[in-house]
Amino acid sequence: MMRALAAVLVLSAFAEAQTTHVVGPGGFADIPQALAVATHGDVLLVHPGTYSAFVTTLGVTIRALVPGTVTLAVGWGSGFNLQPGRQAHVVGVSGNLMFVFGGSLSLDQCSFLGSPNGSAVVEVLGGNLHMQSCTLRGQPVFGVAPGAPFRATQAVVTGVDCTIEGSDASGWFGIPGAAVQLHDSELRLASSTVRGGAGPLQPPAVAISADATSSVWLADCTLSSPAAPCPVVAANGRLARCISTPNCGSLPNGDGLGIHRPAPLQNGAPFTLEFRDAPNRALAVWVAFDLQRTTTPVFEQSVLLAPASAFPLAVLVTDAMGVAAATWPIPAGSAFVDRALWFQAVGGLGLPLQVSAVAGGVVR
Q1: In order of start, what are the domains of the chain with their CATH numbers?
Q2: pLDDT of 149-179, one tens digit each?
Q3: Is residue 30 pLDDT above 50, yes or no?
Q4: Which of 115, 122, 341, 361 has its CA 20 to 30 A from that of 62?
């Protein structure tokens, strides 16, 4: 397993040249200035501070040197308009809106708080999105129905170790909001918390609202609506080992692959993932350095590892509690820093096979 992962990292380090641009002391004064000279695949390392919002077509990595210390100024929001096949990564950044049109975007250790006008906090249209250790919260809105802080349209979305909260009512006349709204999309969350908004007078909102062409796959999640209705309103999908308050809903309970990332990828340090499934169940772990949606009848959910860069890494068996953990050493060296590495598990007792959310991220 160790040699296989090292080989993948070596391949990724030399797969594509990249230039690093510093934003802050000793570099560009603002993120848009750095993006003006960057090209696809480049890295922006951002010092602590508040910076202007941006919109770009570049598949770049924007990484806070210290997660949680970089803020995007309130405005119309920031985002990526990506061509198919391109991917971008944002690490350790906070703001009020992030969107992606096309391509693939990953958000890691990011925090987004909605604006008082009730607009979305994170929105994806026609692309793929993966979130890890992110927090999305709607902002109370007075007198009107707020939109969900997370919205997806014709998209595939996965999330691990995230918290998504709908808008609570603003005063006695406020209207609570749902946390997630899906339109013709696929959502797969693991080890996450999703809560609908609440208020003193109006009925509470659902945690997840999905239309008839969407699917919702949740594993090891905590879901809540402060009172009726049920936390999840969806016609397609399944819950696995989730806690729902109130304990009701239209989705069946059953098997499902869960995944948890205790800590991000660190250069020269061991990296651990925990997988969850039924007890004594075999699962295969794959690794890749690109995200790309693949849909086939062989798999019950979409695969997000790009086939051209995917490698089989390990076969694990869950214990009597349904848990399987594995640790891989990340080689030390500057060539591996700011390279993305993604892991996904495949399992099940028959066709179609089940697929977990993805986990991993940018080596730092």
Answers
A1: 114-254 (no CATH), 258-362 (2.20.130)
A2: 999 999 999 999 999 999 887 665 667 888 9
A3: yes
A4: 115
User: How far, in Å, are 23, 42, 363 from residue 70 at the CA level?
Assistant: 11, 19, 18
| Distance, CA of 340 to chain centre | 14
Write the DSSP assignment of 255-280 as a string of letters: ---EEE-SS---TTSEEEEEEE-STT
Contact 343, 286 (CB under 8 A): yes
303 bridge partner residues: 294
Residue in 206, 218, 50, 195 with CA at minimum distance from that of residue 137: 195
More confident residue, 56 or 198: 56
Q: What is the pLDDT of residues 246-304, one digit of tens each?
A: 998 889 999 999 999 999 999 999 999 999 999 999 999 999 988 988 888 999 999 99
Q: What does 185-202 look like in DSSP terms, one character per residue?
A: -EEEEES-EEE----SSS
Q: Find out whether 71 and 47 touch, Cβ atoms under 8 Å.
A: no
Confirm if 130 and 103 have CB atoms less than 8 A apart: no
- Residues 237-255 as b or e (16 or more Cβ within 10 Å = b): bbbbbbebeeeebebeeeb
Residue 350's contacts (CB-CB under 8 Å, 6 or more residues apart) are: none
Residue 81 DSSP symbol: E
Which residues 6+ apart lie within 8 Å of 13 measured at CB?
A: 333, 335, 336, 339
CA dihedral 205, 197, 182, 58 (to 10 degrees): 170
Element (H, E) at 106: strand 104-108
Cis peptide before 204 (omega within 30 of 0): no
pTM equals: 0.93
230, 261, 356, 162 alpha-carbon torsion, rounded to 10°: 30
CA dihedral sign, ordered 178, 241, 270, 303: negative
pLDDT of residue 176: 82
Which of 264, 181, 261, 166 lies closest to 220 in space, CA to CA? 261
